[in-house]
Amino acid sequence: MVTSIATLLVCAVQQVEPSKPDRSGEAYLKEVFKDMGARRNLSCTVVRYEREHWDDVVAEQSWHELSLKEPGVFRVQYTDCGGDGYRMTCDGKTLVKDSLGDSVTLADKPSGFMLFANEFNFSVPNLFKLFDGEQALEKIVSKSDPIVVTDVGQGQRVVTFNGVQIGESRLTIREENGAKLVVRWDVDTSKSAASSGQQFFFRGMPLLSEVAIKWQTVKSFHKGTFDTTPPAGVTVIDNRKSKSSLQR
Predict the structure, then answer these.
(1) Mind listing the pLDDT tens digit for each residue in 36-93?
(2) What is the pLDDT of residues 71-81, one digit of tens each?
(3) Phi then psi dihedrals of residue 188, to 5 deg
(4) Beta strand residue intervals within 32-166, DSSP E
(5) Long-range CB contacts (< 8 A, 24+ apart) of 85-91?
């Protein structure tokens, strides 16, 4: 009798399989990163909001204006609610980091927007990292947590997933000329990819919303938009591996 009961228990344990996470939205999310990575000749403004609770009424915390010609050729202007900011310009070879003070830093062209937060310690919207395309997906999206897509009406869909070192994320997407366009990224940084074994410390309130308030296709940019020549009279810190005649 004891042997029979033990056998039944073993069989019961063997029949109970752990539930697999719902990753039904994974293919759709890959299309989102692919479409965003294919964007060219655009101008957009992203406003970031921070809050303790989702129902808090808060004002804008920062503004991020991006001019993007192609990967590696861009200009980012950042301004926070206190009036401080920076400017980053890349001409496809050299990146100029200008904190709008008495010095600028030159660096080699980064491989993508992911590097700004990780290496340059500049505040760049998570939304901009989507322009890195599918290579960013591999670094951002947890490989073991759920990915779910929901149709919310008015031509928009929402994808929820766990962002490694970012937090529990919710992307709002709309279709534009057959391509998927992310217009909002909400993040709960207190739920940061626990399954990945990594921890992310966010300097601020735990809830972030990044909203694209302007998207515009640009036929041609103003002359000098991507000029990386340092301003006259400033100290130049040259961190490039190969020096050139840009330093003044």
Answers:
(1) 999 999 999 999 999 998 888 888 999 999 999 999 999 999 999 888 889 999 999 9
(2) 999 999 999 98
(3) -105, 100
(4) 42-51, 62-70, 73-80, 85-91, 94-98, 103-108, 148-153, 156-163
(5) 86/122, 88/116, 88/120, 88/122, 89/226, 89/227, 89/228, 90/226, 90/228, 91/226, 91/227, 91/228
CA distance 122 to 96: 12
Answer yes or no: are the C-beta atoms of 226 and 220 closer than 8 Å.
no
Dig out the tokens for 246 from the structure: 């840009």
Q: Is the pLDDT of residue 189 over 50?
A: yes
Strand 103-108 to strand 235-238: parallel, antiparallel, or no bridges (unpaired)?
parallel
Q: What is the DSSP letter of 241?
A: S
- Residue with token string 């626990």: 194
H helices then E strands: how many in the chain?
A: 5, 12
On whether the CB atoms of residues 87 and 230 are closer than 8 A, the answer is no
Tokens coding 217: 């296709």
Exposure of 237 in the CB half-sphere (CA atoms within 13 A): 8
pTM: 0.83
In contact, 85 and 100? CB cutoff 8 Å: yes
**Distance from C-alpha of 88 to C-alpha of 103, rounded to nearest angstrom:** 13
